[in-house]
């Protein structure tokens, strides 16, 4: 069974590249350009994981993280940030993020992280 990943990223080229890689790696993937769009898409797409940018237009990543978790507590959320600090990582992990990846995102690392995170989803 293919796992779904919702990519919430306002950088269109980056989002498209991640989606293409995930599709080629056997995942289902959809893109949302904002947290608000991602939350709306959550109902129809029903992903197993969300790759969520920390800095988005409108709602920020930490606020969106709590909203995603409120709608689906089993959802694996991985945050991405271009200006990651230990403080941001700790805050995100305390808020329930599965992990935090720095940009540029290593696609191989992302895939490995998703595979590890989603192994236990159905247990």
Q: What do these coordinates show?
A:
With 123 residues, the protein is α/β, with parallel strands linked by helices. The chain is 46% helix and 20% strand. The protein contains 5 helices and 5 strands, in the order E-H-E-H-E-H-E-H-E-H. It has helices at residues 12-24, 35-45, 61-71, 86-94, 107-119, and strands spanning 4-8, 28-32, 49-53, 76-81, 99-102. A 5-stranded parallel β-sheet has the order 2-1-3-4-5, with helices on both faces. Helix 2 runs parallel beside helix 3 (61-71). The relative contact order is 0.18.
What is the ordering of alpha helices and beta strands?
EHEHEHEHEH
Strand order of the largest sheet: 2-1-3-4-5
- β-strand number: 5
* Helix share, percent: 40-55%
CA-atom Rg in angstroms: 13 Å
Query: Would you tell me the overall average pLDDT?
Result: 90
Q: Which class of secondary structure composition applies to the elements?
A: alpha/beta
Topology of this structure?
Layout: E1 4-8, H1 12-24, E2 28-32, H2 35-45, E3 49-53, H3 61-71, E4 76-81, H4 86-94, E5 99-102, H5 107-119
Parallel strand pairs: 1-2, 1-3, 3-4, 4-5
Provide a brief overview of the structure.
This protein is of the alpha/beta class. It has helices spanning 12-24, 35-45, 61-71, 86-94, 107-119, and strands spanning 4-8, 28-32, 49-53, 76-81, 99-102. α1 links the parallel β1 and β2.
